[in-house]
Design goal:
Largest sheet: 8 strands, mixed
Structural class: alpha/beta
Number of strands: 29
Number of helices: 4
Amino acid sequence: MPKNKIKTKKSQVVQEEILDIPEDEIWTYQVEGLAAPKINTSYKNKKLAKIAFVLFIIFAIIFSLYFSVRALLNTGTLEYNEIEGKPGEYELIQFSNNGSITEFTVNGIASLNYDTEDTGMLLGEAEAGNNDIVVYDLTKKVTKIHEYAFNCDGTLQKIYISADVTDIDAKSFYSCWALQCIYVDENNPNYCDIDGVLYNKDMTEIICYPIDHDRYLRLKEGYAHLDENGVQIPDLVDDNGNPMEELWGTTDKYDEAYFEEYNLKVRTYVIPSTVEKIGPLCFNYANLRYVYLPEGLKEIGTLGFFDAGNINAIYSYKNNEVNMETKYTEGMFQTVYPSLPEGLEKIGSDCFTKDRGLTYMYIPSSVTYIGHHAFWDAVYKEDGDLHGIAQMNVACDEATFKSGTVGSSWLPKYDYMLFKKNIDVNYSAERMAMPE
């Protein structure tokens, strides 16, 4: 067989470039077109340049994060999807406020009405009470509201639900910080409201207590008024005569009796006796002081009272007659006792997380399910003493209680020395008497 011929490539010889630099200039010689070398000389304003560069980077990061969040939450766009198998019916997927919308109606598909000559200007945004900001297409009915549809809105105060909306996810209104009321058309077959608090139609489930509902109640109960532009002005003033939005304690001007009356009118809520379930996220971040639960209540949903840290006490009540009144009045209950009601069966995960205002908790023998982290971070240490739910009282004996479903880390924990420690559990406990 013939031998394979291997081709070789001759290497090219590169001529060495020799710079003719005098020896006395070797360290300072400048090549044409390049900057002169810095030998034994400092750069001017070097430290200032570094500081300026760092500040520029920090500003750029903050700037980008700010506008990224605004792009996500305040784009001023509304997103809908047509419901599969139901032509002409739509689901509201995302409501993104542009900062101008304080009231919104869920009925037909909505769009923002921008000025045709200036697309950066919304019609009606310069005039309080003008409804030209939002335009509705009532030929395309919205019948469903998606979970987290109104997530983290900080401007919207009132939501109106039309009769066509028959499916509302309980998590639709999570973290709507300015939301005062949710109103439902009386002809809606599945939902209703009591004074702006959302329920299902047969009043067996409370779905959403709006986070800023106490602001609405301050106006209703005479602790605030509206000015000529419809802006709410507080009538409460501090000891120096300066207006204050809320009353958080006694002052020289407002004594204990006045403070207690304020709490009962504005920061107390009575759940109707027909309610069997508190929905998930129902009272998240609610500014309440006292809550009254009916003895017929069976379930408190996941995150039901999440971070409602101002709640000082939970009471349960029993009446022979149906109670539909949500405002507390003296003598309205036949029987009242502290903490969770007899007959309660389920406490959802993270139900009372961060509720550090509570000081007493009793779990009746009827409870067979407690979700994970149900009372997480509901106790804390201050000046060497425990505050919040410092001990857990359980009606059942330990064996019976643990035979039910109990989620991980359900007990409150506190930092003790260098480790976290569960609080004590009092099994076979008797319920505390009603305080005088």
